[in-house]
Give the backbone structure.
Amino acid sequence: MGSRLGRRVVQFANLPIKLLMPNSFTNIHEIALKTIPSATKIEIKRVLQSLYGFDVDKVRTLNMEGKKKKRGGLLIAKPDYKKAYVTLKTPLSISPDLYPIRIIDEDKKRINKQAKSSLVQDHEAHTEAHHHWLHDRKEAQPPFRPQKHGRLGRPEGASNAKFPWSSMRSASGSTR
Amino acid sequence: MFLSRTLGRTLFAAAARSKQYATTAAAASREGHNPLQEFFEADRSPEDDKPVVYGRSWKACELRLKSWDDLHKLWYVLLKEKNMLMTQRQMLNAQNLRFPNPERIPKVRKSMCRIKHVLTERAIEEPDPRRSAEMKRMINAL
């Protein structure tokens, strides 16, 4: 809003501008902004040129409705906003080391790493699930060794076995 | 007569403004200053051991001592700061991340409200009624 105080034009702009995250950080030809719905293209262009020093080519705007959510009978509504796509005459680039960008990138990498690791674990679990439940049992059991049987179909080491009836059996055998 | 004078004034003001914009943009490109970086916080490093300490908001008694030009400059400094903080908050909230030191936005907003209050006081005390009306109209548009 311009005002004439004495012999000069005084302009106190009060336009809130939120920059949306650009897709790439190099060679940016167009930037996306969020402002209030009452802002006009001319106002946006003037503020960007005078306050920030952008070399603006053209501004395209669209009114967006804030998200509406109903919790029971209560309507929770986020405020409406105007989205502006500003085309720049000269392409700009920003370094990814600036504060919010760096944190967001690190967070995305961490999430991707977690997702990949969980996928690997899931794959392992899936392959394990394909095995039959007896396979592990067989591996756990000792391998089968055919025993040499003596006379009367008893194993040879039966006489040496320390069972309470072994002495009885040997005694009965001796009496015969 | 009056119409031509008004038209001339508006045209002159528009020309001056466009010239100012052109010089600002040219200066920015000449210095290699990137205007996009003003929406981000370059100095902040969360890895440091010491927590970042931010200042308080401007008091009305301090702002009353400032000249018109100083208040005008301070308004734009605060507006830039507010836009930067709101951009930062919006970007972090979009990724479900915590916005650090959220009390900074109310500090900036209160400072801007106090500037407006001081300007209103000056407009009321202005002896020239026409100038006072102009000032009030300008303040109400903020």
